[in-house]
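TEACHING EXERCISE
Course module: macromolecular assemblies
Task: Read the component lines below, then compare them to the predicted structure of the full complex.
Student: A.B.
Group: 4
Components provided:
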Amino acid sequence: MKRFDYVRPATVAEAVAAAAEPGAAYLAGGTNLLDLMKSGAAAPGRLVDVSRLPGLDRIEELPDGGLRIGALVRNADLAHDSDFARRFPAIAEALLSGASAQLRNAATVGGNLLQRTRCAWFADPASACNRRAPGSGCDARGGDSRQQAVLGWNEACVATHPSDFCVPLAALDAVVEIEGRAGRRAVAFEDFHRLPGQTPERETTLAQGELVVALRLPAGAEAFSANARYLKVRERTSFAFAVVSAAAALRLEGGRIAEARLALGGVAAKPWRCPEAEALLAGRPPGPEAFRQAAEAALAEARAPGDNAFKIELARRTAARALTLALAGTPARVPALPASPFAPVPGALVHA
Amino acid sequence: MPEITLTQDPVHLRHGSNIGRPLTRRDGLLKVTGAARYAADNNPKGLLHAVVAVSTVARGRVVALDVEAAMAHPGVVEVMTPANRPALAGDPDAKPNPLVFRLDLLQSDRVRYAGQPIALVVAETLEAATEGAVLLAPRYESEPPAVGLDDGERFVPTAVGPGAPAELRHGDVEAGLAAAAQAIEATYETPPQYHNPMEPHAVVARWDGDRLTLDTPSQAMAMARLRLAALFGIPPENILIRSPFLGGGFGCKGLLSGPQVLGVMAARLVGRPVKLALTRAQLYGPVGHRSPTRQRLRLGADGEGRLTALEHHTLMSSSRFDEFFEPASNASHALYASPAIATLHEAVRLDCGTPMFMRAPGEAPGSAALESAVDEMAEACGLDPLEFRLRNYAEVEPTTGRPFSSKALRECYARGAERFGWERRPLAPRSLRDEHGLLVGWGVGTAIFPALMFEAEARAVIRRDGGGTVEIGACDMGQGAWTALAQIAADAVGLDGERVEFRSGSSDLPDGGIAGGSAHTATAGSAIHSAGAAVVARLAELAMADERSPLFGAGNAGVVARDGRLHRRDDESRSEGYAEILERAGLAEVEARGKGAMDAAAQQRYAMQAHGAVFAEVKVDPDLGQVRVTRLVGAFAAGRIINPRMVVSQYYGGMIWGVSFALHEQAVMDRRSGRPMNADLAGYHIPVNADLPALETILVEEEDPHVNALGIKGVGEIGITGTVGAIANAVWHATGVRVRQFPITLDRLLG
Amino acid sequence: MTVTVTTTINGDAEEFVCEADETLLDVLRDHLGLTGSKEGCATGDCGACSVMLDGRLVCSCLVLAAEAEGRQVETIEGMARGRELHPLQQKFLDAAALQCGICTPGFLVAAKALLERNPDPSETEVRYWLAGNLCRCTGYDKIVRAVLETAADMKSADMKSAGMKSAGMRSA
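Instructor-supplied answer key:
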């Protein structure tokens, strides 16, 4: 690792001040940042350890019925909070489907939002990567495309966002609370992550020194708790990033879908919300036909940058399956194989 | 030297000790407490840390290194480059025999593969050395590398594997195919794979004048010592290698690798002890890998489902500068009866590190293709795959006509099939579903691995206190040498295990040979057995010649050794304890040496192979293509079993390697740079616990009077063979899709 | 940049000086002589360096040593109480649930963390929760069985001791 200064501020204000200069980075769980520092893909000159900032490790009820999750709540703690898992089961399932027990214990809510892409060319300082070194080019183009995007990419960048957690967050209209030198602001989840555009190095809306302090789930998000699932297709049963994943949530009324939410993971540089699919489902009776059409709509704009066209069809099927699982109902507890196609679905033949 | 004491809680000795007992590991206590000391755990006084800088291009030249920047980094002590590396007495590119591999020891600025060491930084701390290596900021002149099997010119290598002919033709394949009622041709591909032992190679080296001491994992200490002696121009006796525990080897610690030698060179350069531990990423280059293969099989069968011809052609790669050719086609030599068999190899040269022996070299990829092809042939013949295999059962080795020294494969099939419930398998694919609608498939594969022997020597001592010592420089890389060889040792000297001090894992002991080729227990065990027999014979001579001994004059009747006593063979009531014999003879101890090696005459007369049958069940999501192995049963016959617990672990391990080969592991090469783009354990997938079901193994009894005096075959590698095919065949049975490219990934099953 | 860290390791107060860029794993192994935690990857992908940090299982290769300030660190070296092995260690030993042994310390620390959270896991749960520990040899089967058997043993020991307590006896 390149040598760096290590500071441990006592307050959020101190932290924001300490990270104001370019080259400073926040350290929380460290599961992604230290990894990148070891390979040389990240080389901050100053690490601002925010892991002990007071007050950011709490889960709080909001007066409007929403929930506020401090940015330093650990992924495992959030997933194991039984009240949280009951109210937001797809999020708990997504959290538990990610990484390993060790990493879920260390990783934080805020850090998860800021995960960098797992694109191999990004992680390799010897490769050209516009995201890591703006203007250097993209060696991922023309390389193995299995992990590459099929939505929202361009010639500058074909990377995907690796988070599981962020996929249901996108579906459920989470809000990110950010503190900077100018004070606190709130950003809709949809606007937090950015597609590459011509500035793939700008992955989020955060400015230098801004700190994610909390995540809010709006009051309405809980209305999906009876029919919400996360499904993750992967190359190992556990401890693998998604090839494709989907979060699906339904609010059913009188045999019809009153409201649907759908987001995809592993397909774009950001967690991919599917508003067209949601609109198509609203008001319709649930079922294979509706789900298939929704999946088609979700991937309507998809195209493959390499020989990863299989992901487009896989994403359709994953979306349709996640909707099917959501319709079957949220299980009483997160399955022992969270978000896995091999998790049993009591009483339902979903693979017919 | 720190004493390696294999402390035992008395409770773990309650099993007694001799061959065949399921003793727990003698090294277990050290390992469960974290006290077992592996190479990188050594921190001698004055230690410096070394880190290698490796090339990011695959072919070219290093044209600039910023040595000044690295030297200026706080804590950096020295930068070793081709300009200042210590002179070597031996040329690292010399190739006196096929088992000496060319090493990259900074002999020039040339780069012959990505990941090649191009410099080394020595510092007071690991962190400083690591950053120093980054600061070297190498610049290159590079040329486009040859990366894939289509990138080079094909040629027929002079030999494959450890020296086998590249081509073997028995009978007339073309005639066999022409006469066949059914013929198939299929091409299978396997990817480059990396050994990835959990312990990356490490070396702690210290020079005292021209004496060298090193802690480093080695599957063959005596060979490593010879190589070092030649490279540094010192007598082998001046070199002490300590390798009590290897954190896995699988072939990549068989022969000394370049980075291990670089650590020794660095220690010489700076005149202080140096530790060099490779990072995970640095294992992808200089320590070997399994070559990718493209295997074309052509099979013919008559109307009864009997093979009329079997041709197995393998295209594989070696490096541009050295020779190792994965002998995949040779998996077809001894398994299925056919009047015509041809096994052929071609190779291309790529800009990669030299491939190397990797758990079941040849057999693993060869069996994957052969077992898949045999299944395809069974399908073409409309036969159950197990029935097809039985119809083509080789009663003698098909290519030579030699009888097998022993072969209990039929019983492996029968017992595995029974345990698995094979008889309920529907013939047609895509006809089984579970209660959730997942596709279910059943597959079988035959396992085979040759029963090899290398050479080893052991020393046995019987002392006047009634105890004994057995010494051999054997290697425990997890297979259980500390335990199984100690069991053999106890029986060899006729003592309870508690009375025998078993010393191993160090190069100052008699040459224990190579822990590889599934031959270590057989070879080192035979050496121990013969040393024990020799020392007991000495003791017997003393007793039989002494008229005060109850064994006096036993002469032709002879004696047997048991529980620390010699008994007359014809009258076991007449016996005498070791202590009394030595006491009376006025000797503190007697000692003898013994050797283990293959019996060349027996090897001529018999085909020697271990066999097995593996049955797999997989479930496949019909829409999403994700695959999971849900049952795996392996029945194996491998001669005498020294310790069933260690053996079961070896079978499990091999079978899980089979799962990994079939479904998970592959190095993803960048076709432009020649770099593996998943050179870590996040992207290079090996199975995790959650990928596996509870496994079952059946140890089929087999007595082999010919392989060696103890009747031992090998168990370390056979589990992979058969398993890969069984899983691939189960995937086909589940889905109706025949994937001929390994690993079988979900995109290939989406339909 | 040099950092002085005051921490507790396996119950003992410990103070050390390290560079800011040194990981907890490197300090344990290189400064403190606690070499039971192994480096298999240095990137959080293999679990061989698993330790407990303030009661949570983490990869010590992804924790800066400076982050251990004021924390409780538990390593494999602290798992046995003197000569008395932890039931998991004893079971791994008795069942020969290990091979080369490099992954063993990490598995034991992780399995202990699992049983503390979930004393009665199903086989699938054990397999899922130990997915962060790789074994290349590969001894997963025996490891899983050893963890399940230990859980069963500890449960029956708990029941016994509860029974004895209710009968007015003290458990040993």
